[in-house]
Design goal:
By secondary structure, the protein is of the alpha/beta class. Helices cover about 25% and strands about 30% of the residues. It contains five helices and twelve strands. The strands form three sheets. A seven-stranded mixed β-sheet has the order 2-1-3-4-12-11-10. Strands 5-6-9 form a three-stranded mixed β-sheet. A two-stranded antiparallel ribbon has the order 7-8. The relative contact order is 0.17.
Length: about 190
Amino acid sequence: MHQPETSPNIGVLAIQGDYEAHAAALTEAGATPSLVRTPEALDSIDALILPGGESTTMLKFLVRDQFLDRLRAFIGSKPVFGTCAGAILLAREVTSPSQPSLGMLDIIVERNAYGDQRDSAILTLDTKLLGGPLETVFIRAPRIVAIGPDVQVLAERDGYPVLIQQGKSLASTFHPELSADRRVHQLFVDLVR
């Protein structure tokens, strides 16, 4: 007898950023979202999204709430998806200015590389995802300036990666939760399954 596909329980770090939009996108992509506000909440989820926001502020909250060590252990063994500031937190190295990160993904990220809020943009980009071009929303976006050998580039802007996959983890420098297109969240849900 055919087993129904499982609905993975995917957490969204709910400290800062548009975590509610990620939760809605996950529901549409067939997952069960959970808002993660404490380190203990990591024990009951299958994967985690680190949303956009302000990476230095998020880092301060994570340090203050003794979240960092639990988070490092979690992302060392489970799939994780970082968008914008979340991608900065997951990077191996952060520049402009330099800041600590979790070192999970083999990427180097330059903060606010495309300028300030006025330089935000909505672009339609080609990707390696099925279904044609993808609407991408960039807000004070970082730039991935270098990737390691195990990183697969799924989309680019001006020759720089904007959507990458490393193993079962993803990072994007844009905000897929702010678009009606759910293919990026669907990809993550499928990776978690």
